[in-house]
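User: Can you predict the 3D structure for this chain?
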Amino acid sequence: MRIRSSTAALMLAGFLSSLGAWAQQVVASAASPGNVNLVEVQIDGGGKLGYTVKRKGKEVIGLSRLGFNLANASKLDGGFSLHRQRVSERDETWEQPWGERQFVRNRYRELRVEVEQNRHARRRLAVVFRIYDDGIGFRYEFPSQPQLREVEIVDELTEFTVAQPATAWWIPAGEYPGLEEEIRKAPLREIGIANTPLTLRLDDGTHLALHEAALVDYASMWLRKVDGQKLRAMLAPSSSGAAVVRHGAFTTPWRTLQIADDAAGLAMSDLILNLNEPNKLGDVSWVKPSKFVGVWWEMHLNKGSWNAGPKHAATTANTKRYIDFAAKHGFRGVLVEGWNLGWESDWGHGGADFSFTQAYPDFDLPGLAAYAKDRGVRLIGHHETGANIPAYERQMDAAYQLYASLGIDSVKSGYVHEAGSALFMGRDGRPRFGHADSQEGGNHFLKAVLDAARYRIAIDTHEPVKDTGLRRTYPNWLTREGARGVEYNAWGNPVNSVDHEAKLVFTRMLSGPMDYTPGILSLEGADGKPFNSTQAKQLANFVLIYSPIVMAADLPEHYEKYPAAFKFIRDVPTDWADTRVIHGAVGEYATIARKDRRSQDWYVGAVTDGNARSLSLPLSFLDQGKRYLAEIYRDGEQADYRTARRFDLVTETRTVTAGDVLQLRLAPGGGQAIRLSPQP
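Assistant: Here is the predicted structure, written as structure tokens:
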């Protein structure tokens, strides 16, 4: 049977049209300043927008789509044509007021791609890529346009197609207890909906971390595996309609890929910070990195209670004991939890009864603030909200004002809720429960920080929205929790795994500082639960898990029981001039060296998982021609986290130079901490 020529022509035209819809054309490209990473932007025959990423000539991100699903307009997912492109460069160095290093180099090429969606009244969109030698960031820009005066984003179509088989370290997204899920390891093909940072090790050893930067007035990005090794952005849902609602011109957060040859290189990246805007607060000399102790751990041990009664821990007498201890040993602050009215209520399900200005009768807030000040110590405020945002925001200004009047210049805030959600005022003005990761949630956390800045108060957020580097823009956002902290070793079931810190360094810590509450020298939680740690590892965590404010979390009597180990805790600073990640493997081991910002001393922390290790530590980061006194805190020969020998700690000193190489012997579940001080 013969097909008529006209029919054949139509069939051929349809086939060619279909083929053309998949044909990709590179419309723009740019490489990083050192020609390490290359981004190519493509548009196919159907006008769909996508990108690829190559590192050293090898593809790490295959063709991945870009675009949006909208609730109030048709999709921004095809019909695009290139309007214009532009490549520019920047190379600058900026100074952190506090941080892992004092000076940060910000060197990138920027590729700006502007497209038009011709079939929809010429709607416009821009995608801006910043391409660094240590990764890339890209974001969307919505210009002001009459066709889209209001944008209701249901979801992003942003994809990350990982080009090689990969192993993933991840936590589930949208589940209780949120960011405090245990870090899991699995082939990338087997993960579900993941939160970020999501860390990947490709088969050739290349390491990637997918995250976001500058999360402002937008829903958090989760990652949903859609096919094989293809991940797609999934925006945390709102309880009031579309995930994101914006008006007029706006930009999205940066979607980030930190890329390195190994795990250590990944942890050295400053990409997240560099993609945030510079400090908007002006003079922030009032933000003080420091160490503190707290009326806190005893409650986790069931030796005290947050609420009033015979076991109430936040009493005037007990707080004075902590203030005296802090003054004696050089700690700047004393955190007190359970000082304010409302803890008897079912606060984990609502927090509506909390007062943030009224203390229990047995706690003299003004008197204790004055008592601390006379001894060179400051109280650290505490606001547990029960995740009841409307109730907290009604009192927040008065609470900050009270603290400022008493010289309390930092606040730890908490958002505990049994369901893992929070109560917000919805867009319709009605109270609604929703995700802390939602647009409404992120807006509240930032509001709390900005309102605190007006009173020169710094914030440490617990049960937070994840860190996306906003500490650069708002340096009073000192730290946050956002992962399983030491408290899980008191009451967790299970306690933190023996490889927990070696995973944190290359996963959670890629996003920013963490209030981990290290330094439990007793190595026991409630009811004698043993830690998966040696004492040496507890010391190493002060260097390894970075936070500008750090609580030495154990009880004063335990520190007095172990004076040799406590000396390192007293000595170690929390603000650094430089940081070097010496080596590491995700979930196995990590070694980090940091230089004190206020002296020439260096500090080293190294940890391992459940395996004993011997690691070489080249001291080439030290100044040439100088001799240093190394104060070493190491595991004893028989130390083991599984036995009573986990308390075996050896302290020793030796003289070293930059040409020396130290051998670090780490016991199972152990670590090592070192202080290196230049000698005259």
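Residues 630 and 676 are 5 Å apart (CA to CA). The chain has three domains: 24-274, 278-482, 504-524+531-680.
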